[in-house]
Design brief:
Layout: H1 2-74, H2 80-114, E1 129-133, E2 136-140, E3 156-171, E4 187-198, E5 206-220, E6 225-230, E7 233-238, E8 243-261, E9 265-268, E10 273-276, E11 281-303, E12 306-313, E13 321-331, E14 334-341, E15 353-364
Length: 365
């Protein structure tokens, strides 16, 4: 009896599994068939939303064209009669654009409604992607909902600032030949972001550059000397053994401001104008102001056959506020660049030293 019962139970389980499998396949078939319906429904909704923005887009394009026509009229390039004719032609063109674009979308909507089982229909106006989860779907829009017309004139642009070169510090009665710092081993690096604004409305000859930048000023000390901080005094003293390297580095965050002068080329693209300074000479005069972020010394020497490296971070009485003058002259994106700190390198010293730098500046648009 137990054997018969086991067989009946086993047979019942087999029939149940077979029925469940068949039901699952049937459900999968239903889901597969209904997914295109839901996806096409989402596409139709997206196309309907696109139709609403077409009129606004074309009106924005028309407004821009009318502004260009008015500017040509103000410059005396066309007469008032020609301006009115051009405005009427532009209005007719954009009205036709609205009608044609909406007709194209209506045709695509009709195609989707008429063929609900088609999964993929290409659509130039709709670059969206739909994802279906469960019985409902949601739409991930990978396209811009509204195409903005290009701005006719841009008075402010931005660019990356990078400069590097030689660095030194000089005091009263000193010159670059008799400072305690190496002329070739000392250097500077500057990295920042600059905005450039045209000063005149219809001329790009004069512009102002402003932004922020990090400055790293490095000085390599000569003659086995190194920096020692004794209270409010910072002095150079002789190291007990031969130094392979004695270096101080000051890191600043500054706001540079320069008035830049130079020719540029006006490029008229029809729907926009741009002032180009590629392959043009330029001259910049200005300065900078900011704060000191860090000061670090680095020593490297040999002790009992081992190479010892020693790094020390402290203020060394370096000036907390930095400010100075700078200028550059160049061609295209490369310039010869010079800067001079008006603040002393160290506070409360018998002889004030001022950092001076000369190198190359790169304005990378």
């Amino acid at each position: 009896m137990n054997t018969i019962t086991k067989c009946v139970v086993l047979l019942t389980l087999c029939l149940f599994v077979s029925f469940a499998s068949a039901q699952e396949q049937q459900n999968d078939s239903i889901v597969t068939k209904t997914m295109p319906y839901r996806e096409n429904g989402l596409k139709i909704d997206r196309l309907e939303e696109t139709k609403k923005s077409i009129t606004e887009e074309e009106r924005a394009y028309l407004k821009q064209e009318v502004e260009l026509i008015n500017q040509r009229l103000d410059r005396g390039e066309i007469t008032s009669t020609e301006a009115e004719t051009l405005k009427k032609e532009a209005a007719l063109k954009h009205a036709a654009n609205i009608e044609d674009r909406i007709a194209i979308i209506d045709a695509k909507i009709s195609l989707l409604k008429r063929n609900p089982d088609i999964e993929h229909i290409s659509d130039d106006e709709d670059n969206s992607m739909s994802i279906t989860i469960g019985s409902k779907g949601f739409l991930i829009d990978m396209a811009n909902k509204k195409r903005e017309p290009p701005k006719y004139d841009i008075r402010t642009t931005n660019k990356l600032l990078f400069s590097l070169g030689f660095n030194n510090a000089i005091g009263d009665g000193q010159n670059l030949g008799n400072t305690p710092y190496e002329l070739g081993g000392s250097g500077f690096v500057e990295l920042g972001w600059i905005w450039e604004t045209r000063l005149a409305k219809n001329s790009n000859f004069a512009r102002i550059n402003y932004g922020f930048a990090f400055q790293w000023n490095k000085l390599n000390v000569k003659d086995d000397l190194y920096f020692v901080q004794n209270g409010n005094e910072t002095t150079l003293e002789e190291f007990p053994v031969d130094l392979r390297k004695s270096q101080i580095r000051v890191t600043n965050l500054v706001v540079p401001v320069h008035f830049e002068f130079g020719p540029s080329k006006l490029k008229d693209y029809g729907n926009r104008v741009r002032y180009l300074t590629y392959n043009k000479f330029k001259v910049g005069i200005g300065g900078y102001a900011g704060v000191r972020l860090a000061t670090q010394t680095k020593l490297r020497y040999k002790d009992e056959g081992d190479i010892v490296k020693n790094k020390t971070r402290r203020n060394y009485n370096a000036s907390n506020f930095v400010y100075g003058l700078s200028a550059y002259v160049g061609f295209d994106q490369v310039s010869l660049y010079a800067k001079y700190d008006l603040n002393p390198l160290f506070r409360n010293q018998l002889v004030d030293q001022h950092n001076v730098s000369l190198g190359l500046r790169f304005d990378l648009h």
